[in-house]
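Before the break, one more example. Copy the sequence into your notebook; we will annotate it together after we see the structure.
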Amino acid sequence: MFARILIPVDFSDQSLQMFQCVAQFCGKGNEEMILLNVMAKGDEVTDDQERKVQELIDSITNIDIKARFSTEIGSPVESILDVAKKESITMIAMASSGKGMAREFIVGSTCLGVIRNSLIPVFLDKFEVTEEEGELVAVRRCANLFRTAIVPLDFSSCNKPVLEQLQYLIDNGLEKAVLFHTIDSSKYRVSDDTRFQWVKEELNKIKGELEARTCDISTHVHFGSLVYNILEVSREFNASLIMMGTHGKSLLHEMTLGSVSEEVIRKATVSLLIIPCIGRG
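Here is what the structure looks like once it is written out:
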């Protein structure tokens, strides 16, 4: 499912470390990762940058994954999306920018631009930047992406692509999956037993349709605000990954921070797999 992965790199520690993170998604055989650097007109890749990229590519030759480096000149967002389409990419993997003064993870304009417009899944990893001996160091958080995935579900047609991606991860060794729904307190009362029962039944139905293999699948229902509960459940279960479907309309036309998807993307402290549901309602 993730046979061809595009990794935009700007030669920061975060973007280069994404290479090792993303290798976890690759199964055996005919996988390919493309490292893409988008430059402004007149810029050139330095010898040192080429050396760093080649060292990364050489580091995975023993695990049967093909990799190559490519450059483009132009707008980062447009170039990334154009290359993804031209190369029949199945997932784009990007790094966030670390923590800012407010101690919240910064998701840059390029990442958001790609997420808002991508027609394929986008993997976003959160790197905390710390200072060691006077130098800034990016701390990788993706050591074991396949430990625990939180899967918020809204029972719309967007569930289907999310569950397809979840099954792929289960088939490739995901240890634990938490199927999760928040009953929106702005629409329902906490005393609405009928709604709670319906949600529980739907989650259990979905659980039964998945091929669990060795994965521990559980279901959970919360009540309250959507964003808060998604973030709280990820902390409660020490999640390694949040898998979240995004409706095309909300990401392409609601550019405010008020949308659930973008607020979770900005505030989550763990890796995210963003799955577009454009055209699915």
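The longest helix spans residues 193-209. Residues 8 and 235 are 28 Å apart (CA to CA). Try to locate both features in your own notes.
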